[in-house]
Specification:
The protein is an alpha+beta fold and about 290 residues long. It has helices at about 5, 15-30, 40-55, 95-110, 125-130, 200-205, 265-275, and strands at about 115-120, 130-135, 140-145, 155-160, 175-180, 190, 195-200, 210-215, 220-225, 235, 240-245, 245, 250-255. Strand 8 (about 210-215) and strand 9 form a beta hairpin.
């Protein structure tokens, strides 16, 4: 047989911890449970036997003794780091010996499967109000994912046990779905509050009135105070995002919007009104 140190990729005189690490690395790579081919399984068996020899759990082969360039022969570790299963009886042949090594390796190495990561893009209202989306995972697994109300950009939804398979019979990993929220043409979010710009006409700004305004929960009727200026902010309590016991508000910032098509009557009215105008909207601006 080949030099056990060479099989494990070690230098002569390696410490037990180094032997253990090297063996684990090879066993995880070539273990039969990972669906490896015949050459890989043979590589696993070779590594397992080399580890057994170097840790003193199996005597050196009488017909294949080896000596390193340094002249040193492998010495058994002072204390086994695993509690081995009962050694197979010699009369069973190599197949039974290797079968025993497989059982020991399978029992010794248990690791949770790796998590898998996805990115899911959802609409602004889906993030604000919550929704259900269908996703396809590897292996054609189709799941309905519940999106909780108020989820934010960059947050994750964890799907327990939907990741990669575990090693040695251990549990599967998880699926982590990273959320990307698409912007909205009208609404903007700050915490649980919703902000929007609400256009109003000149008569509505001067005279006030009741108008319909959109919210994330649907349209509502709001009252515009007479004499409202652009930039005035109206608060609709409890019309923001509801998350647990907390609920945000909806803020509408007024913006005066003149007609896009010139209105001769409006021009005549403003020209006549301006003649005796004493209002100076920029009187408080500092001089430069």
């Amino acid at each position: 047989m080949r030099d056990p140190y060479e099989i494990l990729g070690l230098k002569p005189g390696a410490k037990p911890a180094e032997m253990k690490a090297a063996y684990r690395r090879l066993a995880k790579r070539f273990h039969p449970d990972s669906g490896s081919d015949a050459p890989s399984r043979a590589r696993f068996e070779e590594a397992a036997k080399a580890y057994q020899i170097l840790t003193g759990r199996q005597p050196l082969p009488q017909d294949a003794a080896f000596t390193h360039a340094s002249g040193a022969r492998p010495s058994p570790a002072p204390k086994p780091e695993f509690t081995p299963a009962a050694e197979p009886k010699p009369e069973g042949g190599f197949s039974e010996i290797f079968e025993g090594l497989h059982r020991r390796a399978k029992n010794a190495f248990r690791a949770k499967g790796q998590d898998i990561h996805y990115r899911l893009s959802i609409g602004f209202l889906e993030a604000a109000l919550g929704a259900s989306r269908r996703v396809t995972l590897p292996g054609e697994r189709i799941l309905d994912v519940r999106i909780p109300p108020g989820i934010s950009e960059g947050q994750h939804i964890r799907l327990k046990g939907q990741g990669e398979e575990g090693f040695g019979g251990a549990e599967r990993g998880d699926a982590l779905i990273g959320i990307a929220v698409e912007p909205h043409s009208l609404f903007r979010r700050e915490g649980l509050d919703i902000h929007m710009t609400l256009p109003i006409s000149l008569p509505e700004a001067v005279l006030g009135g009741r108008i319909e305004a959109p919210t994330i929960h649907g349209p509502v009727t709001i009252t515009i105070p007479a004499g409202s200026n652009s930039g005035a902010r109206l608060r609709l309590k409890g019309r923001g995002i509801a998350q647990g016991e907390r609920t945000g508000d909806h803020y509408a910032v007024l913006e005066l919007k003149l007609p896009e098509t010139p209105d001769p009557a409006l021009r005549s009215f403003v020209a006549a009104w301006q003649e005796g105008l004493a209002h100076m909207p920029r009187k408080d601006l500092p001089r430069t």
